[in-house]
């Protein structure tokens, strides 16, 4: 892909490839409920977000040490860089690890080591966004934020992910206020499976600067006009939407419609090890299936840099 890209919607745990799952399981003495790679790969057909999350959380059992997280992060950085990514703001789910006895500090130190190596060896700049698991208790989210801030690792932001329907953003108003007071940037998944109302809450209750997914905004014309007027970035993930049945197939994806409505859309891979491709694969398949022009691809790349939290100097280098 031609233009430098920023990737803004990427779950590091969603870059855990099947081969690495088996390798880490062997090294860490974790027993997997799969016979072999083919048996594991056969489970990558999802009905919806929850059926994906069940496998995503199960496979994380193989990640135990800071070195494991460093390895995972470095592997992502190398692959993303090869696909044109020059800046990445990556999501991490600390609660998914503390729940099985791996401390937040272990996770974040490993991730930060991998990102440090990516910057020195590849020139890939980055930031860490810790995500609240919205289907777990609010008190646990508060603890996650405190532990993350105390981990001794620079943090860029706070996000909101996991099972969406039934867990409105407003539940986490206080956690997001505390994060903002600690200097963190705010983003949230909204309007992937959940209704447009969740985007309104993300904006007006949580005070987010970007919305992750947001594709269901198209059901609310007033909302679309606001997002366009304020140029709120939407981090769209087409291959993810196909695999999780948010859309019927890639040809039916509303990406083109979103661009035509004047929305600040960026293209991202979400959980590339699970959804059939990294960000360059998303771009290529959207170009081929939706007929995106060279100018539209360049717009998406420029949007990703503009929508990033990189400093003005770094943005100027990338634009
Ligand atoms: C996720 Cl696609 C998606 N949606 C919500 N939460 C997530 N965590 C990892 N991938
Ligand atoms: Zn996501």
TrEMBL record:
CDD domains named among the record's database cross-references: ADA
Record InterPro entries: A_deaminase_dom, ADE, Ado/ade_deaminase, Metal_Hydrolase
Site annotation Important for catalytic activity: residues: 213
Cofactor(s), by name: Zn(2+)
GO cellular component: cytosol
Molecular function (Gene Ontology), one example: adenine deaminase activity
Binding site for substrate: 271
Record's catalysed reaction(s): adenine + H2O + H(+) = hypoxanthine + NH4(+)
Alphabetical list of SUPFAM superfamilies matching this protein: Metallo-dependent hydrolases
Active site: residue positions: 192 (proton donor)
Domain of life, source organism: Bacteria
Entry keyword Metal-binding: yes
Cofactor comment: Binds 1 zinc ion per subunit.
Role: Catalyzes the hydrolytic deamination of adenine to hypoxanthine. Plays an important role in the purine salvage pathway and in nitrogen catabolism.
Family: Belongs to the metallo-dependent hydrolases superfamily. Adenosine and AMP deaminases family. Adenine deaminase type 2 subfamily.
NCBIfam families: aden_deam (TIGR01430), PRK09358.1-6 (NF006850)
Matching PANTHER family: ADENINE DEAMINASE (PTHR43114)
Name of the protein in question: Adenine deaminase
Originating species: Prauserella flavalba
